[in-house]
Design goal:
Elements: H1 4-12, E1 14-18, H2 23-35, E2 40-44, H3 50-60, E3 65-69, H4 74-83, E4 88-90, H5 95-104, E5 108-112, H6 115-123, E6 128-131, H7 134-137, H8 139-147, E7 154-155, H9 166-170, E8 178-180, H10 186-191, H11 194-208
Parallel strand pairs: 1-2, 1-8, 2-3, 4-5, 5-6, 6-7
């Protein structure tokens, strides 16, 4: 069963994959996401100040659902949960990391790429996983194929998700939400272009909005289509 956090992620439909360094960047990025109408961020542990950024957003931007990404060790699980992370994302499925997250009572979405990974996820009692890198392992077609023998599993595809293919992923019933970084590219953060991040975020929210039956998902003019790495 989905937890309230996962239910909220499913309602938002997009999770920005964020690379920020320090509390200041984290807070300004959170403000840009809020301005764009997307109150969620997966702050990846890729830079030295990522933990400080996560803690600042968790403490000072309570309207933002803040999670931690690139969690690969049990120690990191404890660090990010203590800092205020409400969900965890990992690039792969490592049982000790999953078990520690479960012990801490925080939902974790480990990365999977094969049916064997999914069998391990089922054995661990998981109902939602991250397909990664989604674009490399087959995109929407991979979710259809992998989801067939695991009908109760939900996916958050990440890696190669862009404005141009977001609708293809979100149209699949097995997809809870999609993770992407085109609206929060690191170059925009370092340039301090918060208005552009907010603009791209608004476009992403519009793209993710549920469509009427038979209505195609349109890419707004001027939308950035760069792929999430």
């Amino acid at each position: 069963m989905d937890t309230p956090v996962l239910e909220r992620i499913g309602a938002l439909r997009i999770v920005p994959v964020v690379v920020v360094d320090g509390a200041g960047e984290g807070l300004r990025l959170a403000d840009a996401l809020l301005a764009g109408g997307l109150p969620v961020a997966e702050i990846t542990l890729r830079l030295p100040g990522a933990l400080d950024a996560l803690a600042a957003v968790a403490a000072e931007r309570p309207d933002v659902l803040v999670g931690a990404g690139t969690v690969v060790t049990e120690r990191q699980v404890d660090e990010v949960v203590d800092a205020g992370a409400t969900f965890l994302v990992s690039p792969g499925l490592h049982e000790p990391v999953v078990r520690r997250a479960q012990e801490r009572g925080v939902p974790i979405l480990p990365g999977v790429a094969t049916a064997s990974d999914l069998m391990r996820a089922v054995a661990l009692g998981l109902g939602v996983v991250k397909l990664f890198p989604a674009g490399v392992v087959g995109g929407p077609a991979a979710i259809k194929a992998l989801g067939a023998p695991f009908p109760r599993m939900r996916f958050m595809p990440t890696g190669g998700v862009s404005a141009t293919n977001l609708g293809d992923y979100l149209a699949l019933p097995a997809v809870l939400a999609a993770g992407g970084s085109w609206m929060v590219e690191r170059s925009l953060v370092t340039a301090g272009d918060w208005d552009e991040i907010a603009r791209r975020t608004r476009e992403a929210v519009a793209l993710a909005a549920p469509q009427r039956d038979g209505e195609p998902v349109a890419v707004p003019a001027g939308t950035s289509t760069s792929r999430e790495a």
